[in-house]
Amino acid sequence: MIVQALAFYLFAFVTVTSGVMVISARNPVHSVLFLIAAFFSAAGLFVLLGAEFLAMILIVVYVGAVAVLFMFVVMMLDINFTELRQGFLQYLPIGGLIGLVLLVELLVVVGGWALAPEAAHSGAAPMPPPGILPNTHALGELLYTRYVYLFQAAGVVLLVAMIGAIVLTHRQREGVRRQKISDQLKRRAEDSVEVRDVPTGKGI
Questions:
Q1: For 118-163, how does the pLDDT look when each residue is reduced to its tens digit (9 = 90+)?
Q2: Residue 150 falls within a domain, yes or no?
Q3: Model-level pTM?
Q4: DSSP-based three-state secondary structure for 170
Q5: Is 101 contained in some domain?
Q6: What is the extent of the structural domain holding 158?
Q7: What DSSP line would sit under 10-45, residue for residue?
Q8: Which residues have C-beta within 8 Å of that of residue 31, sequence separation ≥ 6?
Q9: 59: domain CATH number?
């Protein structure tokens, strides 16, 4: 128990510290690295809770895909982050209002659990005892039976988002040079390369 408590406090401290550094670091690359550290620490917390499937998904999806994508976008795009930070105070009231609304919602949820603890178990699906089925098996059985339509709806939403991103990327815009594979394949060396006999010391 002492080892588990020490591991919990360690992972929790790293998660909170990394989350604060994500929004306070001046270098965007450092922010992404702190975000990856926060994801790893959160995965450690899930392992301590016995939810190894969620820990694996957190590392594979968020660290292996999302965080790496953020890293490549930050490093490849030439973004002037100084200009982006200049309007911080302009949007501070709106951000504070949204944060206040989220805080009220969290207080309502926590207050509901405190006033009516039995309400959390009324809408929950029955789960088998932990000793009978592994977590991944129990989660898959519940996800593909009771929540199969919601799972399919989430897949449709992701598919629509992916198609929308592809359409926006490949839309025709004036003044933008595009690569045409067919024209490149039709080109011949005789039409593209010209051999000239340049006299010595005279140039073209």
A1: 665 665 556 656 667 777 787 888 888 888 899 899 999 989 988 9
A2: yes
A3: 0.57
A4: coil
A5: no
A6: 2-82+129-187
A7: HHHHHHHHHHHHHHH-SSHHHHHHHHHHHHHHHHHH
A8: 21, 22, 23, 25
A9: 1.20.120.1200
